[in-house]
Amino acid sequence: MTILVVDDHPSFRAIASSVLAADGFDVVGEVGNGRAALAAIALLRPDVVLLDVHLPDMDGFEVARRALVAAAALQIVLTSSRDAADFGPLVAASGACGFVAKDELSGAAVSALVC
């Protein structure tokens, strides 16, 4: 399964990519903001996007909504250093498959959430 990692922190992108690759995902790219994410999704056509909620140019909820309009079969897993409960109904309203906290990230956690 191919995956794109979207996070504004280069160190987290590197860690997430390593963890997901070790757990069998094919990491096809890493980007640091929403606009780059939308462009990479169109270009790379990943199966899954690990998408940070807090990005510098637009939040992950908006990126998810826009991405799913352009690629309805795309599976998005939101992530943040904050707890999912902090976002209330925003996760479900975004169209994402689910949410995994950054400190709980693993290939198994992402796999369990994909639709």
Task: Please provide a written account of the structure.
The chain is an alpha/beta fold and 115 residues long. It has a single domain (2-113), classed as Response regulator (Rossmann fold), CATH 3.40.50.2300. 40% of the residues lie in helices and 23% in strands. The protein has 5 helices and 5 strands. A 5-stranded parallel β-sheet has the order 2-1-3-4-5, sandwiched between helices. The mean pLDDT is 95.
Helix share, percent: 40-55%
Number of helices in the DSSP assignment: 5
Within the CATH hierarchy, at the fold level, what is the topology? Rossmann fold
Number of domains: 1
How is the biggest beta sheet arranged? Answer: 5 strands, parallel
Give me the secondary-structure category.
alpha/beta
Would you count the extended β strands for me? 5
Q: Which CATH first-tier class would you pick?
A: Alpha Beta
Give the terminus-to-terminus CA distance: 13 Å
Helix-strand sequence: EHEHEHEHEH
Name the CATH architecture.
3-Layer(aba) Sandwich
Broad shape: globular
Radius of gyration: 12 Å
Strand order of the largest sheet: 2-1-3-4-5
Concise overview:
The chain has 115 residues and is an alpha/beta fold.
Topology of helices and strands:
Elements: E1 2-6, H1 10-22, E2 26-31, H2 34-44, E3 48-52, H3 60-70, E4 75-80, H4 90-93, E5 98-101, H5 107-113
Parallel strand pairs: 1-2, 1-3, 3-4, 4-5
Helix pairs in contact: 2-3
